[in-house]
């Protein structure tokens, strides 16, 4: 196995690395000392801050960064522990503690800290995803590690070049590698093939299903897109079988937030279902309004309707999807717009008739 170059995204010492809170003079002076590379002087000042305010998480965190610079790793870990003890949502403290544990060979403990970063702020933790991925590869879980690294691209396109190089070095042939290949491919057919490979390598790769659905929509493969979106949605909510169950799930359970763009999956499925219902309704109108039932136009309409016979689209299902979007993301204006349009279409004379669904 290739050497794993861990810690590539350690939070560097800069004007922004040392956190500051309140108006504490000693914090300001400590930050100045640290930025001038006087880490021992900075440690003394941050210690003075802690003496004045023993629950100041920022002071512990800053002192931990300074202690790391003078290679007092035990002291740095203790300070990160105290920063987290006084602020259990301190993402930077979890991340830096994880990186230090990783560097010290405490890989499993490092992964726990990376996971905590991801749990607290999944959409703003690309470094945590990358380092967690490298840690998993180091443990022998190549597929799982490469998925984590690929996810950092999914959340943060600005990391594309760095992450892609890591994937090339460690992940060739994995699901994560094919996923990123699909994300970077300009040709739609080639991108779809890459997502196909990612799903073949990992059959429950939700992000790959979602991206393939978007490709299928662009290629006008609506049925295939709907199947992929169904997979994304059902992966998140396997235990619910009724619409009310889904509503309760999304109101009571926050785990859905870990699936990227879930609200978009519901929205897109609702839109495509609505379009299919409207298309079927139009075909029914052709059949009903044409006197000659053996005309070529009617025959074509009946032939097209046959495609819907096994799995007829339902406006009710579209409305349910739009409603679930408003629960997941109450300020998603587009969902309200499409739900309103769907209600208008459902109120037309033929739309919603028993034979239309």
Ordered list of secondary-structure elements with their pairings:
Elements: H1 25-35, H2 39-52, H3 57-69, H4 73-86, H5 91-103, H6 107-120, H7 126-138, H8 142-155, H9 160-170, H10 175-184, H11 188-201, H12 206-218, H13 222-236, H14 243-252, H15 262-289, H16 296-306, H17 315-328, H18 333-346
Give an overview in words.
This protein is mostly helical and 357 residues long. The protein is built from 18 helices and no strands. Helix 1 (25-35) runs antiparallel to helix 2 (39-52), helix 6 packs antiparallel against helix 7 (126-138) and helix 7 (126-138) runs antiparallel to helix 8 (142-155). It starts with 24 loop residues before the first helix and ends in an 11-residue tail after the last helix.
- Secondary structure: number of strands: 0
Nearest-angstrom radius of gyration? Answer: 27 Å
Task: Give helix and strand order, one letter per element, not per position.
Answer: HHHHHHHHHHHHHHHHHH
Terminal CA distance reads 56 Å
**Uncertain stretches:** 1-17, 238-259, 348-357
Count of DSSP-assigned helices:
18
Kindly state the percentage of residues in helix.
55-70%
Q: What percentage of amino acids are in beta strands? A: under 5%
Mean pLDDT across the residues is 75
Reported for the largest beta sheet, the result is: none
**Structural class of the secondary structure composition?**
mainly alpha
Which outline best applies? elongated
């Amino acid at each position: 196995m290739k050497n794993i170059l861990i810690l590539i995204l350690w939070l560097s010492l800069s004007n922004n690395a040392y956190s500051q809170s309140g108006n504490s003079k000693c914090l300001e002076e400590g930050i100045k000392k640290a930025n001038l590379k006087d880490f021992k002087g900075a440690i003394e000042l941050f210690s003075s801050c802690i003496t004045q305010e023993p629950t100041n998480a920022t002071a512990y965190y800053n002192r931990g960064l300074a202690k790391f610079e003078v290679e007092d790793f035990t002291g740095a870990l203790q300070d990160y522990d105290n920063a987290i003890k006084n602020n259990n949502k301190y993402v930077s403290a979890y991340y830096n503690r994880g990186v230090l544990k990783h560097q010290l060979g405490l890989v499993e403990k490092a992964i726990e800290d990376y996971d905590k970063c991801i749990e607290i702020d999944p959409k703003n933790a690309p470094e945590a995803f990358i380092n967690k991925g490298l840690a998993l590869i180091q443990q022998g879980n190549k597929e799982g590690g490469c998925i984590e690294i690929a996810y950092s691209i999914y959340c943060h396109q600005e990391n594309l070049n760095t992450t892609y190089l890591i994937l090339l070095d460690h992940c060739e042939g994995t699901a994560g590698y094919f996923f990123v290949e699909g994300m970077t491919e300009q040709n739609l057919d080639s991108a779809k093939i890459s997502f196909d490979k990612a799903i073949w390598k990992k059959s429950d790769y939700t992000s790959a299903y979602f991206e393939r659905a978007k490709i299928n929509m662009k290629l006008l493969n609506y049925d295939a897109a709907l199947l992929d979106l169904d997979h994304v949605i059902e992966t998140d909510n396997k235990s619910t079988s009724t619409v009310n169950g889904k509503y309760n799930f999304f109101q009571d359970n926050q785990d859905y937030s870990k699936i990227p763009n879930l609200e978009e999956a519901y929205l897109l499925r609702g839109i495509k279902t609505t379009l299919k219902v409207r298309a079927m309704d139009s075909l029914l109108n052709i059949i009903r309004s044409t006197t000659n039932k053996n005309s070529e136009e009617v025959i074509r309409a009946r032939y097209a309707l046959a495609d819907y016979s096994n799995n007829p689209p339902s406006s009710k299902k579209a409305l349910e999807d739009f409603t679930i979007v408003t629960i997941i993301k109450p300020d998603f204006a587009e969902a309200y717009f499409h739900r309103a349009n769907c209600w208008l279409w459902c109120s037309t004379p033929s739309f919603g008739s028993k034979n239309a669904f």
